[in-house]
Design goal:
This protein is an alpha+beta fold. The protein has two helices and two strands.
Length: about 60
């Protein structure tokens, strides 16, 4: 299962840091749709959203999956 803590540990082991606005949602339709519907982050403040399960995501070239 994905957790923010597990992602932070993995990023730290690779010498990276995750943005403060990093979230994990168990199930959602599309990470892209959720991020587009949310208020825009402050300039220079990236946002990451991970999902354990996506039910309406699209792959490359708009392919459904």
């Amino acid at each position: 299962m994905l957790t923010v803590a597990a992602l932070q540990r993995a990023a730290g082991a690779a010498g990276r840091a995750l943005p403060d606005d990093t979230n994990v949602i168990f199930e959602l339709g599309s990470t892209n749709a959720v991020l587009h519907a949310a208020p825009a982050p402050a300039p220079g403040a990236p946002r990451l959203l991970f999902a354990e399960l996506q039910t309406a995501g699209r792959g490359r070239r708009g392919r459904e999956w």
